[in-house]
Every structure is written in structure tokens, then in C-alpha cells.
Amino acid sequence: MDQETLGSIVLLAIVTLISVVQNAFFASKLEHESKHCNGKGFQRPGSSAFDRVYTANQNCGHAYPTFLAVLWCAGLLCSQAPAAFAGLMYLFVRQKYFVGYLGERTQSTPGYLFGKRIIFFLFLMSVAGILNYYLVFFFGSDFEMYIKTITSAISPLLLIP
User: Fold this and answer.
1) Helices (DSSP H) in 48-108: which residue ranges?
2) Can you give the pLDDT at residue 87?
3) Residues near 86 by Cβ (< 8 Å), separated by ≥ 6?
4) What is the pLDDT of residue 24?
5) How distant is the alpha carbon of residue 121 from its chain centre?
6) What's the pLDDT score for residue 40?
7) How many helices and strands (H and E) does the chain possess?
8) Which residues of the chain have pLDDT under 70?
9) Are 77 and 147 in contact (CB under 8 A)?
10) 19 neighbors 68 (Cβ within 8 angstroms)
11) Residue 42: its pLDDT value, please?
12) Do 126 and 78 meet the contact criterion of CB atoms below 8 Å apart?
């Protein structure tokens, strides 16, 4: 692979690998809680601590494919840097959700809502990239620089709760 191609995906790859490490962390927490509760491995003992870890892990796992799809679509079709920034924010929020779920479930709500907003932002970036492709294809009008400027300006606004 040439350097230009790698340069256009390296940030997305870094965010993806960080998310893999985060998934491993979630799995290790689940394994630790399972062994701590009954020492026999992965059995659902009915412990409230185990149930919280198990549910938080399942909830994070259910949203993971959607996150990866919109991260890569937004980064490839629109702009890599804002997509990678939003991806890092999503991983931070997912960590907050997971840890919040281990406490009281109400502590996880802000992380959940913030995560939905980030996924929606990545989705809009993907749609903008697709629309730009068809505008170029059919009309010869390229709005790529405008879209990149707008997404770069809007991505820091994701920090506002």
C-alpha cells in the first residue's frame, strides 16, 4: 500500500485498534466479575454486580458494529480527521457509559445519550460524503472542501454535553 493511501486511513485504523483494546478491557471486566462471583467461569450467577457488568458489556457490543460502519464511512467518504476525532469521543463516552453502568444505571444515561449524538454526527458525515459524490458524478459540482470545513468546525461542538 502506498503512503498516500495509508495516510488517508491511518487515523481511522488507530481509532479502530483503540476500540479493540477497549472491547478487550470490557471482556476482562466481565471475566473478572464472573470469576469473582462464583469462581467457576462464565456462568450467570444472578449477582447484581455480575448482571450490571454483563448488561453493560452486551449494550456496548450491540452498538459496536454500527459505530465501526459509520466511522469508516464518514472517514472515507467525507473527512478522516473529524471522523477520527468523533470516534475517539465515542470511545470515551462508551467508557463512561460502561463505568457508569457499573455504579447506578442512572449514571450511564449521559454516556448513552452522548454516544447517540456522536453516531448521528458520523452518519451525517457519511451522508454528506455520498451526496457530494453524486453531485460530482451528475453535475460536476464538488463541495468536498466546504463539507470538510463544516465537519472540521462542527466536530469540536461534540464536546458540549
Assistant:
1) 48-77, 80-102
2) 96
3) 71, 74, 118, 121, 122, 125, 155, 158
4) 95
5) 11
6) 56
7) 5, 0
8) 38-47, 104-105, 161
9) no
10) yes
11) 54
12) yes
Residue listed under C-alpha cell 464518514: 74
Cell of 159: 464536546
Amino acid at 55: T
CA–CA separation, 129 vs 42, rounded Å?
Answer: 43
Q: In this predicted structure, what is the pLDDT of residue 1?
A: 74
CA dihedral 60, 66, 68, 72 (to 10 degrees): -160
Note the Cα 98 to chain centre separation in Å: 13
Cα of 35 vs its chain's centroid, Å: 29
Q: What is the pLDDT of residue 41?
A: 55
Neighbour-count burial for 25-63, b at 16+ CB within 10 Å, e otherwise: ebeebbeebbeebeeeeeeeeeeeebebbbebbebbeeb
